[in-house]
Design brief:
With 53 residues, the chain is an all-alpha fold. The chain has helices at residues 8-19, 32-40, 46-49. It starts with 7 loop residues before the first helix and ends with a helix. α1 (8-19) crosses α2 (32-40).
Amino acid sequence: MLNFKFTALVAIYAANVLDGGRTIDEVPAALQPQVKEILGNSTGTAADTTPQA
């Protein structure tokens, strides 16, 4: 389980970048470091996130 503390706004921007709705350059400068941190932690594949039995 990942225990990160981010605001809802940062999470929304990160989801928007992941979905292709925005680029990281379109994220407000004050939020970019946190969004980049989330995106850096989301580079795993579906196989990496599949729960183990």
